[in-house]
Amino acid sequence: MTILFASDLDQTLIYSRRSMGLDVSEAELREVERFEGNPQSFMTEKSQQALWELSESAFFLPVTTRTQAQYERVTGIFKDGDAPRFAVVSNGAVILENGQPIKEWSEKLRQQCTSDKTVIEELMPKIEQHFSEDWVLRVRQADNWFVYLIVDRERFPEEKLGEFTKIFREIGWDMSLQGRKLYFMPVSITKAGAMEYVKERVNASFVAAAGDSLLDHCLLESADLGLFAAHGEAVKSSIAISSHIEVTRQSGIRAGEEILERIAKVVLQYK
Ligand SMILES: [Mg+2]
């Protein structure tokens, strides 16, 4: 029986110094990503070992909103840097097979976005209309698929997020606030859609999924077992969560450990 472990990376399995929490010692940390010469993301040694072991008995599928280039920096999640056969990047807009994007998949989504008019050229004027405030520090585009703003959280009016979400949803864009990043994602680009494609390709009969943000919600809903990190945007929001989805007891990098421990148990049970 093939078990697919489809997991978000940032603030689910891997953590920046800002997001890891305070109850972890330097000696426990393993660097998993380096950016511009500096260590950027970490796991605890315990998590890293657990993930490496898990990858031997389950099919590990990274499912991230990172672009391909950003994803390729996260080498420490694989034993000896050996990337798995599939990875979902750009929130599901791109599926990598043996490191190469599956063209037909992305072309189909590009057509869908064009016919839905959820393309960046249509979005930008709307963003300029609503977000001219000084708490927008930078505007970034991800390989022409979606947009995120880097915001000043101190000044960001969180009470308006519900209203913004409604406005942008009406024109086909989902929003997600993760740390300092405010994402605008075409509704047709989902982690769940890409996971389903890989599930079929590897003929998996059970899917365990983990995540922390609203962009992970559909992924966990589509799985047989879901795990949400307690510290994440999704748990803190008011969305309805199905009964096959559990929430970790712990937060920060310890939630990552808890997720991997739980998944290892499930894999043992189904093997
Ligand atoms: Mg995340």
UniProtKB/TrEMBL annotation:
Annotated keywords: Hydrolase
InterPro entries the UniProt entry points to: HAD-like_sf, HAD_sf, TPP-like
Parts forming coiled coils: none
Domain of life, per lineage: Bacteria
GO molecular function (one): hydrolase activity
Protein name per the record: Hydroxymethylpyrimidine pyrophosphatase-like HAD family hydrolase
